[in-house]
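Entry 12.
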Amino acid sequence: MSNSSAGLTRDVPLEPGRAALLIVDVQNYCCDRDGGAVKDMAEADFQAQYGEYFERLENQAIPNMQSLINACREVGVEVIYTVIEALTRDGRDRGLDYKITGFLVPRGSRDGKVIDAIAPGEDEIVLPKSASSVFNATNIEYVLRNLGVERLAICGVYTDQCVESAVRDACDRGFLVTLVPDACATTSQSAHDNSLKAIKGYCRTLGTAELVAELKTYRQRRAS
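Predicted 3D structure (tokens):
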């Protein structure tokens, strides 16, 4: 009996025309110190709950996202964003978990915008969602199929929540996933590390520098 899985691998490059970069929930609500998730917190509480997160976000994850975005744009890899944002101002359309948790980012609010540091281009796709998984809460699979995307690099926040959900669901829907851990952040290093261990079987894992170098090979081919 032949092995139908012979020769299959997740170790495939992010090839222009077949790939996209998905940036998960890097928005004012949870990635800006004036965002709704943290703006009313006392400084001591902020530092205790989010100090480590914002340090990683600002000093590592966002600069790495900027590098990834620039590299993708240079070679024509689609850049797609998700944001937590209700379809209504009162959030009545939110998923039950978000209602219980109290996550409310009203339609059209500042909290629902991607942070300025990695702002979408004028013709790049931004998908609002009101549940953890972008694949459950939006038509992203339909959009990716229409774009001809088979391979998906994923980064963003939080590593152990919406990013992890996106990785698992993309894999189950037949996309080849590359996770970029140093362009992700969550509330603690241990939570970040535990999430990476939990999903390592669902994706290829590459650092930002490695993925940028991979993308540069396509730019070099175009120039030659």
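Annotation: The chain has a mean pLDDT of 95. The domain at 19-223 is CATH 3.40.50.850 (Rossmann fold).
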